[in-house]
Write a structure and sequence with these properties.
alpha/beta; Aspartate Aminotransferase, domain 1; 7-stranded mixed sheet; 17 helices; 13% strand; binds pyridoxal-5'-phosphate
Length: 459
């Protein structure tokens, strides 16, 4: 371990004793001491006391500028006034009905006007959205196989938990990656029904359609691979997928759980000018409450209307989440707010680039919409296997260094990215950049003194 990292971790431990204590208690009753595996890291995760706007405080009272924002689910920032007002109003008129109400068509209208889809159904999480989209695609095509990309994350259902973070030698040839289970309990049948291709490699996709003619129901992807930091699609890649899907009678599903709200007003289809057949939305569309949706054409949705595909859910369209969603679409995810976030994003990105160049750090910055990341690689990564070769301790030095200086630069884990909320300010970005200016020389020094070869990410 780098001595600088050791120092930052002991500073972290001195600053956050109450989190250590709380984690110890949690561990007694909750596996890993957390409610979602992503929240666990060494030596222990920061426990939150409260949050507001662009910041949160931990149990010890330390304040942080928050670019974790619930793994990118809070483009609205914490407690956005418009969302809070809408939610508070709804709290006294029933929090769930299990019956239809008049906010449903209003939010469906908002979504269908913004994204190239004709009908939607609602849910509560990204996992649900991609699970139902995949099922619909299978029903619409009468085929069982799904094509997904190595390293992509689409949630926790069986079809999604395949080749999320596979390793050599299990993952085989990069031109035809082997389907690898994302943990015990995923049935073998899922592996057979999920075929894997390499992001940014159209030939690997074409090959799968040749190998399984008439058997692949859909290509599912995040238009920007965001489970490996930030990996942009090469020019023509998304258009190429559109053509391959159409040519082979398969559906193209954009998993826009992250990109739908955080890339720009019209999500990835507007940003990249490519029209998918289905869109999955969640995270930031709820403004801080659990809300998800999947949408497609009337023709595909007729499978639900005709009772051929089943979709349901007790908490679907609960009025509190729906009120939050409506306020989010109408008052948070506005063109003006996207312009504000773009401005902050340019400032942050440019500031990072200047510092990286000044200290001679080997790495690059990539950003798109509200998202961005410091990528500690000698050259731009184009797929999961490029991402896998990373100096994890160098990244940890970045993360703990920033946290100790009051900036949660992104969620913990080197496969994540920062989010800028509509409530972040120029002053927040200045503070973020000042912290990075302090940390970057430590990173450059550690990188220069590195004696071991760069390893492979185990997460
Ligand atoms: C692209 C993508 N799809 C799906 C999901 C699953 O969403 P949820 O955690 O709400 O189930 C995530 C969550 O990180 C995601 O990033």
């Amino acid at each position: 371990m780098y001595p600088e990292l050791q120092k930052e971790i002991s500073t972290f431990e001195k600053r956050t004793p109450k989190s250590a204590e709380a984690h110890k208690k949690n561990l007694k009753r909750i596996p890993l001491g957390v409610a979602s595996n992503y929240r666990a890291y060494d030596p222990y995760p920061i426990f939150v006391k409260d949050a507001s706007g662009s910041k949160f405080r931990d149990l010890d009272g330390n304040e942080y500028i928050d670019h974790n924002l619930t793994f990118g689910a809070l483009m609205a920032g914490h407690c956005h006034p418009a969302v809070m007002k809408a939610v508070e109003k709804r709290l006294t008129t029933g929090t769930m009905y299990g019956m239809p109400h008049d906010m449903e068509w209003e939010l469906a209208e908002e979504i269908c006007q913004r994204f190239p889809i004709e009908m939607v159904r609602f849910g509560n999480s990204g996992t649900e959205a991609t699970m139902h989209a995949v099922r619909l695609a299978r029903a619409a095509t009468g085929r069982d196989k799904i094509l997904k990309f190595e390293g992509a994350y689409h949630g926790l259902h069986d079809a999604a938990l395949v080749s999320v973070k596979p390793h050599a030698p299990d993952y085989g040839d990069i031109n035809a990656p082997t389907s690898v289970t994302g943990g015990l309990g995923v049935p073998k049948a899922s592996l057979e029904n999920v075929t894997i291709a390499t992001f940014n490699d159209l030939a690997s996709v074409e090959n799968r359609f040749k190998q399984f003619p008439g058997q692949i129901a859909a290509i599912i992807l995040e238009p920007i691979l965001m489970n490996v930091g930030l990996c942009m699609p090469k020019p023509g890649f998304l258009q190429g997928l559109r053509e391959i899907a159409t040519k082979n009678g398969a559906l193209l599903i954009f998993d826009e759980v992250k990109t739908g709200a955080k890339l720009g007003w019209g999500g990835a289809s507007e940003y990249f000018n490519v029209k998918p057949d289905m869109i999955c939305l969640a995270k930031s569309i709820g403004g801080g409450l659990p809300l998800a949706a999947f949408g497609t054409s009337k023709a595909v949705m007729s499978l639900i209307s005709d009772h051929k595909v089943f979709h349901g859910g007790t908490y679907n369209t609960n009025p509190v989440s729906m009120a939050a969603g409506l306020a989010t679409f109408r008052e948070v995810l506005t063109r003006e707010n996207y312009a504000h976030v773009e401005k902050l994003s340019s400032k942050l990105t440019e500031g990072y680039r200047k510092t990286v160049a000044k200290v001679g750090l080997q790495g690059y910055i990539v950003s798109a919409g509200a998202n961005g990341a410091l990528m500690l690689y000698p050259k731009e990564i184009v797929n999961y296997r490029d991402w896998e070769k990373i100096d994890v301790d160098l990244w940890r030095l970045y993360w703990f260094g920033m946290v100790n200086r009051g900036v949660m630069a992104q969620p913990y884990w080197w496969d994540e990215q920062w989010t800028i909320s509509v409530q972040h300010t120029e002053a927040d970005i200045d503070k973020h950049l000042a912290a990075f200016a302090d940390v970057a020389p430590l990173l450059a020094k550690a990188q220069q003194e590195r004696t071991e070869p760069v390893g492979v990410a185990t997460h």
